[in-house]
């Protein structure tokens, strides 16, 4: 797109240079016309200049017609350039708003992730505490079970001694 702008700029500059040359030629023609008016008494020069002026006037009219077409073309190109600039501006604005939306979304997701990390750390602490409590309870239950088994065994021994003593009595 930059190459297109550069090409249009170069073309406009060349048309501008042509316009300046035509203006310079017009100025020269006017200067020559003044000289012709000053030398009215020399008919040969006047006729030659009149012929030359007619040709130059035709050339100037042709150049003016070309310049008019160039000016119209330049206006059209300027309109196209303005449309392109407008479209580019809209694209840039759209891109900026998309970037802002993405930054906001990333920020929100980062915050959410941070909150989840905190939640996970809290759950891990609670799980560790519950695991220690369960181990302690299991140890207590294991001790109580061992004690109960020992008491059951002692009970069985005493019961069997009682039976044996009853039989003996």
From TrEMBL:
It is found in: Cytoplasm. Its main location: cytoplasm. Keywords: Coiled coil, Cytoplasm. The keyword Iron does not apply. It comes from the Eukaryota. Residues 92-126 form a coiled coil. GO terms for biological process: centriole replication; de novo centriole assembly involved in multi-ciliated epithelial cell differentiation. GO terms for cellular component: centriole; cytoplasm; deuterosome. The keyword Cytoplasm applies. PANTHER family: DEUTEROSOME ASSEMBLY PROTEIN 1, SARCOMA ANTIGEN NY-SAR-24/CYTOSKELETAL PROTEIN SOJO. This is DEUP1 protein. The lineage of its organism: Eukaryota, Metazoa, Chordata, Craniata, Vertebrata.
């Amino acid at each position: 797109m930059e190459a297109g702008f550069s090409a249009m700029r170069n073309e406009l500059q060349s048309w501008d240079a042509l316009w300046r040359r035509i203006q310079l030629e017009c100025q020269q023609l006017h200067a020559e016309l003044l000289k012709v008016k000053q030398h009215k008494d020399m008919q040969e020069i006047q006729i030659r200049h009149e012929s030359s002026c007619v040709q130059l006037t035709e050339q100037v009219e042709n150049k003016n017609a070309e310049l008019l077409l160039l000016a119209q073309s330049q206006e059209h190109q300027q309109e196209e350039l303005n449309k392109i600039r407008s479209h580019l501006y809209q694209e840039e604005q759209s891109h900026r708003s998309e970037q802002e939306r993405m930054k906001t979304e990333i920020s929100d997701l980062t915050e959410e992730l941070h909150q989840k990390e905190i939640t996970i750390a809290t759950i891990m602490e609670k799980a560790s505490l519950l695991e220690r409590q369960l181990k302690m309870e299991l140890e207590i239950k294991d001790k109580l079970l061992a004690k109960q088994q020992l008491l059951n065994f002692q009970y069985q021994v005493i019961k069997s001694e009682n039976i044996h003593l009853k039989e003996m009595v």
